[in-house]
Amino acid sequence: MNQVVISGAGLWRPAHVITNEELVEAYNAYAVRFNEEHAEAIASGELAEKPLSSAEFIEKASGIRQRYAYIKEGILDIGRMRPKIPRRREEELSHQAELALHSARIAMASAGKTGDDIDMVIVSCAYTERSYPAIAIEVQNELGITGTGFDMLVACSAATFALQRAHDAIAAGSARAVLVINPELTSPQVNYTDRDSHFIFGDVSTAMVLERADTCTSVHSYEILGSRSQTVYSNNIRSNFGYVAYAQDVDPFCAENLFHQNGRSVFKEVCPMAADHMLGQIDAVGLSIAEIRRWWLHQANINMNQLIARRLLGRDPDPEEAPIVLDEFANTASAGSIIAFCLHHEDLDAGDCGVICSFGAGYSIGSLVIRKR
Ligand SMILES: CC(C)(COP(=O)(O)OP(=O)(O)OC[C@H]1O[C@@H](n2cnc3c(N)ncnc32)[C@H](O)[C@@H]1OP(=O)(O)O)[C@@H](O)C(=O)NCCC(=O)NCCS
User: Fold this and answer.
1) 346-351-355 Cα angle (round to 5)
2) Å from CA of 235 to ligand 1 middle
3) CA distance 70 to 229
C-alpha cells in the first residue's frame, strides 16, 4: 500500500456577503407582507402566520454572523427570496464548475502540481447543478487532467467521504494523485421564506490534493494515518428536491423539497455519534486524545462543536484547538471542516496530529486522522 499525504488545500470565498441583519430585515419584511396578504386565511386557521426572525437569535443559537453568496441578487428581494442565477448556455462553463475551478487551482498551486500530475477528480458536495455530464468531468477538461472524474453527493460529509475515496485509490495504486473539490453552492436550496432555516447556509468552494508521499514536494503536507466513514439513516435533515418531482405533479420547488430539518433532534443525536466516531478512529490509529493538537470540525453550529469538543477533551477547547469558521461562513455543507483546515494548519509543527471530521445529513460522519510531516 502506498503512503498517502494531503499536499495542497484551496479555499475560495464568493464576492458577496449577507449579514444576519440584512437577511432578517428581508425575511421580516416578507413575513409582514405575507401575514397582511393572507390575514383572512390566517384568522380562519387555514394558514399559519409567519413568525418574525431575529439576528440576535441566529447568532446565539448557531454562532453564525454572516454568510457568503455566489450571487446575492434576488435573495433579499421580498418578491423573490432566492438568488437570481443566470442560466448559462451548454457551451459555457457551468456555475458550479466555475466555483470548483477557483478552489482547485489554489489547491494545485499549494501542492505544486499541474494537471499532468493528477489522475482523478472528485467533485463532492451536497448538491450538483445537473445530473450529467458530471461537474468533475467538466473541471477535469478545464484543467487538462486525463484519467477519471466523477461527482459524489453525501450532504455534509461529502468532502470527508471523497477524501477517503481519494486516499484508498492512491493507497491501492489506482491513482498517483487525486483532486477532491467541494463547490458548495447551497444558496439555491435554501428556503429563505422559512424562519427556522433561512439563516443556516452559505456558499463557498474548497479543494484538496492528495498524492503518494514519495511524490510530494509541498511545504505543508500531512500523512493520512487513518480515515473512516459512517452512515446511520435518519429523516431529521432532508432535501427532497430531485428529478422525480417532474413525474409527481407537484411543484418541484415547494417548501418540503427544499432543505428542512428537525434541528433539536439533529443536535441531540449527532453530537454523541460524532464524538464516539472520533474517539474510535483516534484509538484505531494508536493515538490518544491528548496527542491531537487540532480538531477541524464540521461547521454547522458553534454549540454543537463546543459540546463535541467537551465530550472529547473533558473541558472547553481553546479556540486554536478547535477553530470556528462558521461565524464568517455559516454552514457550508461539506466544506466546513475543510475551510477550518485551510485557515488553520500552517502553524502546526512536524509530528503534530489533527482530526478532520464532518457530520450531518444521512446521518453521515466522516473523519481523517492526519500528522504533519
Ligand atoms: C437550527 C438551530 C440553530 C436552531 O436552534 P435551537 O436552539 O434548536 O432553536 P429551536 O428550533 O429549538 O427554537 C428555539 C426557539 O426560537 C425560535 N426561533 C427559531 N428560529 C428563529 C429565528 N430565526 N428567529 C427567532 N426565533 C427563532 C423557535 O420558534 C423557538 O421558539 P419557542 O421556544 O417559542 O418554540 C439548532 O437546532 C441547530 O443548529 N441544530 C443543529 C443542526 C444543524 O445545524 N444542521 C444543519 C445541517 S448539518
Assistant:
1) 70
2) 17
3) 29
